[in-house]
Design a protein that fits this description.
Distance between the termini: 70 Å
Strand order of the largest sheet: 1-2
Order of helices and strands: HHHHHHHHHHHHHHHEEHHHHHHHH
Structural class: mainly alpha
Shape: elongated
Length: about 500
């Protein structure tokens, strides 16, 4: 196995992991010793095979629920693996320096470093092991060095797929993010240098797809730090806040060509990310989390800074709508990120930043998009963003305003864009189940309010089945709609 091609190694390692679930460590106690013994060979093809096996076995430590059995297994692994594993890191770092001009050797060595960094995450996930606490300086010194590494030989020529250097830095950001979140007291001496390193790293990254995961993990690390009171001094200078907003947050909420392609060509995946919350690893989501983290301690200043950017973006759109529609989309997303504090699935946003006038923004910038019915297929990204805004803040906007949006939203059930008509169906569903505040289950939209829309609503819902790219979301929203007696009786009478 250890001398097999890398693809075969991964498959065999997965097989060993499956066996290990039953036999390790009780029935296979010498497995760790056999693996560690291979570290001394100096053959990195063999070592990478061992590391791949360790990866497959230890991965469950970041997934499984805490239990006595799991604790005992992790302790056994740490007692026998942690020390030689750390020695391997030191040796690998030395080899990286020795072979800094040998591209083939570097690929093998950095492949090992990627696996080492991932295994480190698994071994530290459940709790901070005493060994790693005692040797934190060793590991963090190397991680900091690798974050700042910029060997041109390892840079990927592919704009879409990350190379070894991107994978390694991304995993290191995950590792230090874990420490910042769970072991902040022990990690505090290293916080400032890592914040500065990650900051400089983000400034060096472009918009290419290959940097997406790295950018997301790096921003998430900053978001984790910004959310803690003891580190607010790192961000409180006016110039620092302004720079973070301008150079990190704003660029990463802008919709790129690849995002537009996803919207147009893979609508279901776009919806899963944007509407259903599977966007945890995206640039936009990370930037949104950083906004929330900074807002915790600097809300008035952050609101003021972003207010200027929002106004600029909207002015650009007003001047040349067809050229700058992405600016308005970014403005809507930024306002949403800035205003959101708490939410539930049933009510949408339940707590907001009171410094953001959601109603006024809606009247000026959202409703006009929804009411452009002469061409419902024009600028579909903006249509989707506007509908999502209403759906997101439905509990925070005046009931009359939400109700007034219903005809425009209903009209978009006929949109050709799969994203737009799906969002419209979801919004209709959410609006129809809304209740008047302080009432005894009185709906915001009454049967009488719905009467003028009944025909168009049904035509739109049924017509959506015939549109390109339709999926079960439309059907499910329709079933939810007719499940309410007051509406179903009215519609089908």
């Amino acid at each position: 196995m250890l001398r097999s091609p890398s693809g075969v190694q991964k498959q065999l390692s997965a097989a060993i992991a499956i066996i290990g679930q039953e036999d390790f460590p009780a029935k296979w106690p010498n497995l760790i010793g056999e693996m560690v013994g291979k570290f001394a060979t100096g053959d990195f093809h063999v070592i990478n095979g061992v590391l791949q096996t360790a990866f497959s076995i230890f991965e469950k430590y970041s997934i499984d629920m805490k239990s006595q059995k799991l604790w005992e297994e992790i302790k056994f692994v740490l007692d026998n693996f942690a020390a030689p594993f750390t020695e391997l890191l030191n040796a690998t770092m030395n080899l990286a320096k020795e072979h800094s001009s040998n591209v083939e050797a570097l690929k093998v060595i950095f492949g090992s470093l990627v696996l080492i960094s991932k295994i480190f995450y698994f071994l530290n996930y459940q709790d901070l092991p005493e060994f790693f606490e005692d040797n934190m300086k060793v590991w963090m010194t190397h991680f900091l060095s690798l974050l700042e590494a910029d060997n041109k030989l390892l840079q990927s020529d592919d704009d879409d797929e990350p190379g070894l250097l991107e994978d390694l830095k991304s995993q290191i950001c995950d590792n230090i993010g874990l420490y910042a979140h769970k072991y902040e007291e022990e990690f505090s001496p290293y916080m400032k240098p890592f914040v500065m390193s990650v900051w400089n790293l983000l400034l060096s990254l472009g918009p290419q797809l290959k940097y997406d995961m790295l950018t997301s993990n790096a921003i998430q690390f900053l978001a984790s730090v910004a959310d803690r009171a003891q580190y607010k001094s790192l961000f409180e200078e006016e110039a620092t806040l302004a720079s973070i907003c301008e150079r990190i947050i704003v660029p990463n909420i802008q919709m790129r060509d690849c995002d537009v392609e996803l919207f147009e060509d893979n609508a279901e995946e776009y919806i899963r990310r944007d509407l259903e919350g599977s966007d945890v690893d995206t640039r936009r989501r990370a930037a949104c989390d950083l906004v929330k983290g900074l807002s915790r301690f600097f809300e008035p200043r952050i609101t003021s800074i972003f207010g200027s950017y929002v106004n600029t973006m909207l002015d650009m759109y007003t001047a040349k709508p067809t050229e700058h529609w992405r600016s308005k989309d970014a403005a809507i997303y930024l306002v949403t990120s800035l205003a959101t504090k708490a939410k539930t699935a049933k009510h949408g946003i339940t707590q907001t930043n009171q410094l953001v006038d959601l109603t006024e923004f809606c009247r000026k910038n959202i409703i006009p998009e929804i009411q452009k019915l002469n061409n419902i297929d024009e600028m579909p990204v903006l249509k989707a963003a506007a509908i999502k805004y209403i759906m997101t803040f439905r509990s925070q906007l005046p009931s009359d305003l939400v109700k007034a949006c219903l005809p425009g939203i209903t009209a978009h059930l006929k949109a050709q864009s799969h994203v737009v008509h799906t969002y419209a169906a979801a919004a209709v569903d959410k609006i129809l189940i809304m209740k008047m505040p302080g009432s005894n289950n009185v709906p915001v939209v009454s049967a009488a309010d719905l009467a003028p829309l009944a025909s168009e609503l049904l035509q739109g819902l049924f017509g959506a089945f015939a549109l390109p790219g339709n999926h079960t979301t439309i059907y499910s929203q329709f079933l939810v709609l007719i499940s309410f007696d007051c509406y179903s009786n009215f519609i089908f009478c």
